Structures are given as C-alpha cells and as structure tokens.
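QA checklist item 7 of 12: single-chain prediction sanity check.
[x] sequence parsed
[x] length recorded as 169
[x] structure emitted
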Amino acid sequence: MELLNRMLDGSMLFDLKEALASASGPAFRLASDEKIRHLQRVPIFEECTRKQLRAVADISKVIEVPALAVLTRQGAREDQFFVIIDGTATVKLSARKRVRLGPGDFFGEMSLLDGEPRSATVRAETDLRLLVIDRPHFWELLREVPELTQRMLVTLSRRVRELEKGLNA
C-alpha cells in the first residue's frame, strides 16, 4: 500500500536520505554567510548572535527538492528540520486544513525536539532549495547554545496558541 501511495503522489522520485547523503557537491554549497542570512529570517533564530547563527549554519546542509516531492509524511518517524531558502511547499494538517510555506518558513521542529512521529505531511509545490538540520547535530548544538531552546519553546507556544484559536473560531 505504501508503494502505491508513493507512486500516486509522485514521491517515488525523491529520496530524502539520498539527497542528504549527496548534498556535498558544488551545487549544494552555500557560504556560511549566505546560510546565516537565510537563518536570520527564521523566527526561532532571529534573536541569535552571529556566533550562534554560524554554529547553526555549520551543521546545516543544503538540498534541492523537485516539485511535488513529499518531504515529510504524517505519522512517519524522521529527524530533520527544514528551512525553506527558495520555493514553496504545502503542509497538510488534516483533510481540509492546508498551509503554504515559502522562503524563511520552517517545519520539522517538533519531531526534531521530541523524536515523535511527524504531525503533518509536507509536499513541495515548486522546486525547493532547503537548509536541513538533522536531530543528532541539532541536539549537540542545543547543548552548546541553550538560548536556542528558549527561542524554540516560545515559537512552539505561539504555534499551539494559533492552532487553539483556529479550533475555537
């Protein structure tokens, strides 16, 4: 059944693990300063010092994703955090609730923090270029830069409140 679902949604063409493993060629390199510029647009990093942002940039990889590729699947156990550099993606929260993400938006922070299954499915609407951070490197970074934990908690709290408002409306 999983194979059939992947064939129907087009995600057979994209393998995230393979993309991360091969994200070392010249096409996938960004200067640290350019990574920092993209990270500064992300709310959880906006109050970080340049040194802290450099630490985040150092553990991130750049990958390119084709349009229609499924990046995360609701219920799957994955451990990557994504920041959109270029392109748009759609987050499917439920059968009727979808959210569009663009440059500077991010997703995957909840699974990154708690290791639980994904809460949503995210699909590339257009070709994407992403910064990707994996869970082991991120936890190491949080130990070195505890202020990031505080920023993430505030951001997650805001997201929960927004969801609650939507449910009560």
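[x] summary fact logged: The chain has one domain: 2-168.
[ ] second reviewer sign-off
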